[in-house]
Amino acid sequence: MSLITITPPAIEPVSLADVKSAARIDGTEFDAELALIITAMRQDAEHRQGRRLITQTVELVLDAFPTTEDIDLLIPDVQSIASVKYYDTAGAQQTIDPAAYSLDSDSTPCWLLVVTDWPTPKDVANSVRIRYVVGYGPAAVDVPSNTRLWIIARSCYALDKKDPPEWIDRLLDAETVHRAA
Q1: Which fold would CATH assign to domain 7-53+138-175?
Q2: 60 neighbors 93 (Cβ within 8 angstroms)
Q3: What predicted TM-score, i.e. pTM, was given to this entire model?
Q4: Between 122 and which of 24, 38, 49, 87 could a Cys-Cys bridge form, CB atoms 3.0 to 4.6 Å apart?
Q5: Whose CA is closest to 77, among 11, 143, 145, 171?
Q6: pLDDT tens for residues 88-137?
Q7: How far apart are CA 155 and CA 164, in angstroms?
Q8: Which residue from 119, 179, 165, 150 is spatially nearest to 46, judged by alpha carbons?
Q9: Could you read off the pLDDT of 143-152 as tens digits, one per residue?
């Protein structure tokens, strides 16, 4: 089972100007490095929180449909299902009619609920692909302020090549997905 980014976010949740203001940088000499740092910090925040921040498209790849019927989409804030595809027993890729499933976007993480039974896919690796749109929204302001502040603070410390104080990481706690063991 893997989760692949198909379309990355169009923007970052914090801008170069946000970080430069916090770091009190007036010039442009650090712009290229900061752009890389901001993206890395967003990706780190997504990893730590178990969610995607800005709207993006991902694909969950499975070897088969689960025997428990419903599919754990692994992350919250799923906005829509783009497609559910699988390779049939003859090896041809099929797209499942959206009427055969529904999205539970209220749960954390979200679930894909089957209305009828899942078809039988070919017994090969990566035979099932579920593509969906996920994230808080398309704009930086859609991301909670504590997460945005974490990215800004971590970016400033990364630029200075210093370890941040421990309390900064606690900014992510409120939005972190905790999975049952």
Answers
A1: Hypothetical protein yqbg (1.10.3230)
A2: no
A3: 0.91
A4: 87
A5: 143
A6: 999 999 999 999 999 999 999 999 999 988 999 999 999 999 999 999 99
A7: 10
A8: 150
A9: 999 999 999 9
Q: In 32-143, which ranges are E strands? A: 56-62, 71-72, 78-87, 93-95, 101-104, 111-114, 128-134
Residue 49's contacts (CB-CB under 8 Å, 6 or more residues apart) are 147, 172, 175, 176, 177
At 23, the amino acid letter reads A
DSSP 115-175: SSPPP-B-SSTT-EEEEEEESSBSSGGGS-HHHHHHHHHHHHHHHHT-PPPHHHHGGGGGG
Closest to 74 measured CA to CA, from 99, 49, 54: 49
Q: Report the alpha-carbon distance of residue 111 to residue 124 in Å, rounded.
A: 23
Domain ranges of the chain: 7-53+138-175, 56-134
